[in-house]
């Protein structure tokens, strides 16, 4: 494209000779009282004025920064709360793994409030509710209970006692070195491990 083209002249923002000399951008004055120097340096206005700045000259911006305190006017509790909230970017947070309908929910709420446990009262009731409202037994757990000759409503203590009893019966040392029951013993041990991992005992 030629420089003297009619298209090139229309692209320009300002045609040559139209505005004369360029006007200098105005610099703000120093915001310090009684100072008439140009305020080339920005300083934050303070809390509740985020994104707003004061313009100072170099001497006064140094003086302003020495005495600047973002938390001025706030109490210790408010400062502590602000600093704690700043860890999450002042966004709301929730505790993980919290289930309000679980039997342990009341105990967890008391623990957070710093209240003492009521061992004989509601916590005892919650423990009874846990055993009464036992979770549904999965097929592998059902098979493990059958291997140990137990019902699905067996407690953890029942599982432990039955395991000890079967190991004493089936172990070769208890049978005079007879290894005929080793397969059954191995099944019982695996069934007990599975039940233990599932939280039965």
* CATH topology description of the domain at 139-198: Helix Hairpins
Helices and strands, in order, run as HEEHHHHHHH
Strand order of the largest sheet: 1-2
The biggest sheet amounts to: 2 strands, antiparallel
- The percent of residues in helical segments reads 40-55%
- In DSSP terms, counting alpha (H) and pi (I) runs of 4 or more, how many helices? 8
Give the mean pLDDT: 77
- Report the β-strand fraction as a percent range: under 5%
Structural category:
mainly alpha
Structure characterization notes:
This protein has 201 residues and is mostly helical. Among the domains are: 27-76, no CATH class; 139-198, Orthogonal Bundle (Helix Hairpins), CATH 1.10.287. It has helices at residues 6-11, 58-67, 76-86, 105-113, 122-132, 139-147, 156-170, 182-198; strands spanning 41-44, 53-56. The protein has a two-stranded antiparallel ribbon. Helix 7 (156-170) packs antiparallel against helix 8 (182-198). The protein is elongated, with a radius of gyration of 39 Å. 8% of the residues are buried.
Can you summarize this structure?
The protein is mainly alpha-helical.
Features:
single chain; 201 residues; Helix Hairpins; two-stranded antiparallel sheet; elongated; stress response; DnaJ_domain; J_dom_sf
Q: What's the structural blueprint in terms of helices and strands?
A:
Layout: H1 6-11, E1 41-44, E2 53-56, H2 58-67, H3 76-86, H4 105-113, H5 122-132, H6 139-147, H7 156-170, H8 182-198
Antiparallel strand pairs: 1-2
